[in-house]
């Protein structure tokens, strides 16, 4: 069974899914020293700080790996944080593809049927939205998973 992929335009925080993916960093710099932008900033504003305090407890996250936290004040079952950018704040094809694979593995471990994923690597990862979208789609076409993925191509950060 290959993964079912839907591309949507809109706010990742308004998707009707069980969990969302947060394109995070390697988790080496304490979250409270960072000014989260884009998806992370929107999550922090609406979920509160608890998911970030939880992910901090994991310590350093290897590039492309994923960690699960609660959703804080958001109406999801959880947030999957992926280390989608390297220590130079740059996304690579490797960091994006591994993030996608590990996010899906973690979603499957938690029994989720559908997750929403932003354009990992765009924004703070210093890559264009189109380049990140192509990397994500290339990775997803080769994955067999019962977890459906909504790729949120344009993310509102209200």
TrEMBL record:
PROSITE patterns: MACRO
Ranges for domain Macro: 1-158
Alphabetized UniProt keyword annotations: Glycosyltransferase, NAD, Transferase
UniProt keyword annotation of Metal-binding present: no
Highest rank taxon of the organism: Bacteria
Cytoplasm is among the record's keywords: no
Protein name: Macro domain-containing protein
């Amino acid at each position: 069974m290959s993964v079912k992929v839907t591309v949507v335009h809109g706010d990742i925080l308004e998707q009707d899914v069980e969990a969302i993916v947060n394109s995070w960093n390697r988790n080496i710099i304490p979250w409270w020293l960072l000014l989260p932008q884009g998806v992370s900033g929107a999550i922090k504003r609406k979920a509160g700080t608890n998911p970030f305090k939880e992910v901090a407890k994991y310590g350093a996250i290897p590039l492309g790996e994923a960690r699960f936290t609660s959703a804080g004040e958001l109406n999801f079952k959880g947030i999957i944080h992926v280390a989608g950018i390297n220590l130079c704040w740059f996304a690579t094809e490797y960091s994006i593809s591994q993030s996608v694979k590990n996010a899906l593995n973690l979603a499957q471990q938690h029994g989720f049927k559908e997750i929403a994923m932003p354009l990992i690597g765009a924004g703070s990862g210093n890559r264009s939205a189109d380049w990140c979208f192509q990397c994500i789609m290339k990775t997803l076409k080769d994955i067999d998973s019962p977890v459906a993925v909504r790729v949120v191509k344009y993310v509102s950060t209200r």
